[in-house]
Amino acid sequence: MITNQKFLHWMSRYNFFVLFTVVLLGCGPREGEVFRNPSPSETGINFQNTVTESDDLNILDYLYFYNGGGVAIGDINGDGLPDVFLSGNQVKNRLYLNEGNLKFRDITDTAGVAGGSTWNTGAIMGDINGDGLLDIYVCAVVGINGFNGHNELYINNGDNTFTESAAEFGLDFDTYSSSAAILDYDLDGDLDMYLLNHAVHTQESYGKAEVRQKRNAQSGDRLLRNDGGIFVDVSEEAGIYGGANGYGLGIAIADFNQDGYPDIYVGNDFHEDDYYYINNGNGTFSEQLRSYFGHTTKFSMGNDVADINHDGWPDIISLDMLPEDEKVLKSSEGDDLTQTQILRVSRFGYHYQYSRNMLFVNQQNAPYSETAIQSGIAATDWSWSALFGDYDQDGEQDIFISNGIPKRPNDLDFIKFASDEQIKNKLNNTKLVDQQAINMMPSGVTHNYVFKGGEDMKYQDMSGIWTAKDTLISGATAMADLDNDGDLDLITNTLNSPAALYINKTDTKANYLKLRFNYKEKNKFGIGTKVFAYIKGQLQYKELYTVRGFQASSEPMVHFGFGKQEKIDSIKIVWPNKTFQVIKEVATNQTLVISPENTKPFNYNSLSPTSKKMFHKVTGNLGINFEHVEDNYLDINRQKLIPYQISDRGPALAFGDLNGDGKKDLFFGGSKYIPSRIFLQGDTTYLEKRIDNIANDSIKEDITALIADLNKDGMADLVVGTGGGDFYNEMPPLTDSYYLQNSTGFEAAVLPEYFENAAVIRESDFDNDGDLDLFIGNNAITNDFGNIPNSFLLRNNQGRFTVVENKELQKLGMVTDAVWTDFDNDGVLDLIVVGEWMTPKFFKNNKGQLIETSPLDRPYNGLWECIIPFDMDKDGDLDYLLGNWGGNTKFKASDKYPMKMFYSDFDQNGSTETVVAIEKNGQYYPLEGLDELSAQMVGLRKKFLTYKSFAGKSIEGVLDENALKNSTVLEVNTLESGYLENNDGKYSFVPFKSELQVAPIRAFVEYDFDKDGNTEILAAGNYFGIKPYHGRLDSFSGALIKDKNDVILGNKLGLELELKSVRHLKMIDLNGKTYLLVTFNDDKAQVYDLGD
Prior knowledge:
By secondary structure, this protein is mainly beta. It has 19 helices and 75 strands. The strands form 19 sheets. Strands 1-2-33-32-31 form a five-stranded antiparallel beta sheet, with no helix packed on it. Strands 6-5-4-3-37 form a five-stranded mixed beta sheet. Strands 36-35-39-40-42 form a five-stranded antiparallel beta sheet, with no helix packed on it. A hairpin with an 8-residue loop joins β31 and β32. Residues about 1-25 have low confidence and may be disordered.
């Protein structure tokens, strides 16, 4: 956070992980449909990580007091049964030998692994010394709060005993360690280590992001190269950050770019960015988070990696702590304020971070697509560990998430209490109010989550169905087949209660395959081995890295589920040394131990996308060096409750012949006080030309524009629609601009006087008198969002325009786009208008009269952004493609439960407000919290004296009943993009596939891109004009739509549209060749060559 540093130092001591109440497992087993929880008396695993507070050591003294211990699973004695090691914070570690039939024996004392450090954290198993036996490495926090000791390495002696040898191997670090991961990053055959450390709040840990460049011995991560059994710190030369702001809690190892070298993803808590280290193959890494991720989790916790969409590339889940429950959500601190985020990003140099889980879908050497909301896994409360696994063995990756915090230090009432200056002084200097402060934090005890994986990366919450709903504080979690029955079991290291086992009951209900590896000396378990399993044309892909989730390592094996399939067509094993072998016709329901045999060199290029790049960025951009610069005005500072901005709808773009040479030129509109720019088409490039009469109108914000001959003198004229949500009432800059061209240049002409925020200008000779008339669609009213603006039909009389009276058209809605099209196939162009909080409106042209008609089978109220005619189903008639916001936002709408926006002057102070509400469990709740609502409606602070009193209140409990009754209600019943399917003149809506729903679609263009004689539609979008609570809608790479069944994403075709907000797609010409021009909000325009 970016605020007073002294207060931050104190607040953060409180703000994460505190005291809690003990909840014990019952005596007997509890069961769900997939997992049962045997009791400690049944299994013999009675480890309990009991943490005891004292006056000298509690959450006020150590930030991560309640992060818990670790868990590691592996077969330490070679009997084929996975054994369990659990590390404790204030209790001794325990090692349990698996004796079969889920019976475990505690061999800690004879094994010599109880540990000598004061405070242990993560634990892993791995063959550190390369002798083929699993060793145990235990992390510790040392050097603060009286914590003594060091990270401990227990070398396996082969007889169920271990020898602590950390110093001998150079691994006896006395740092603030969270966990460690083993990998062979340099492919020299032996296993190296990444040591994940965490910071504590000091003056050094705050400030600009460049803090990460200065190494800190205690909190900085370390990359340790294995040099003949001695681990050497090569962090600095390898490009690994090690600053005082590295709050490392999660680490994932995978070959993210499929080049044969393992890469690293590090999840950092608090303000520091996550790290995405790409292995350069020469012993160094390049941190490339910003190139591949538009945003990340804010309070990054655990993470995991798996191929969730069967494309053979690893995807990532990163956990945060967004609550699902309304009471918790509205009483907890979450995302930054908009202004705070702007400072964090622009001034302090951090990336965009949001407080919710993220699911990053690998786009194969292009930026990841983040889909957690659409996938249904964004909100799982205070989440620690995520583990992908096919728990029901149906061939799809499920997710288990461990959960819970004893008390919620981000509770807003607690924060308000602790913000008082007197209280702060007492907390900083005495113990007088410590217990009172702790008591103010509500319990964060909640259940663990388990999600069933399905098609289109959609997950179904099976918590309480697959599992018994528990109320444990679950942290580190590891996966193994503990009973050797073929399915995946789990164990969680819980706080103040016995470790919890989740024993899988799938058994023979579905088929499996387990693989273990017997690889080369120094890496006998085959860490880094990849497996591609093929069955009936479908691929499942796994990569063996044991450190997964949070402070844990799982059994070193690979597990697949195959449903009812009894035989796998083939499995391809790619070894860490870049060789491979193929095994064909493999029976399921067995465990294979595979060694390298008849291997061949593997070509990693074979994994890269094979589709031909249709688009190629043009060097020099054909001379079009336009960059749109958004002005600094934020309308959400003026109307705090609007659901999104209207101040960022530019730039305007128009294409037409501005100089009478027969070649089409470009007009780019400017932002407030930034002049528009014109590029004239030359023979080999576009050349910028300033036209003073046009450029001098720079106070206006240009949103839409049209180049056309409007007075029939043979010369093109220019109309510019202005907006920006800044100017209001009847301020002159809200008027649209009109320039008539004559022999000496352009001169300002007069349009009818109106003062609106323009959205679209579309021309057509609707009255068939030989000149072009105009439809002017307007979007919103400044300072009065929710009130319907006026849109206009302007009749042209030799270049002079008058308003056509048409009440339905004038007040049709919050317009965003329109198209003149013959929707009733009578040979006359009609008008379709789309917009936000409205259904598409159809106006039939009846001899020059536009009459609203209703060809839709029912209303489809959306946040519609664009429309284009196209025969989507190839049946010979025109359908209409519609861009909407998609399914990956916190907005939520359906036919049964539409999203509602209540518009009124609720507090009767002379200015209106909008309150957006969505449904949860059959009731409507405001999207905004108490702070946001009361900033606009100050009377709510008197009604709700605490956040607790507000939290969980429905919209009826927040706003006065009469005020709600008298308000105007606008609704949205679909957020999906799709098309209106033409069925003999009647239209029904068909949603696009889920891959087109990841962000708003804001632009279409039609062209024969693949030169097959048929046109296609190119779609693009993304949008950033929303509050941090919603995140950043940046994951759409564009898409080429051939028909309803044939869609190719833009990043497969050479487009680079992710992480940018597209405003216009336009086909332009130069020297007889056609190019694609892409215009963005607040970014540089791009030009693409379409190839041969």
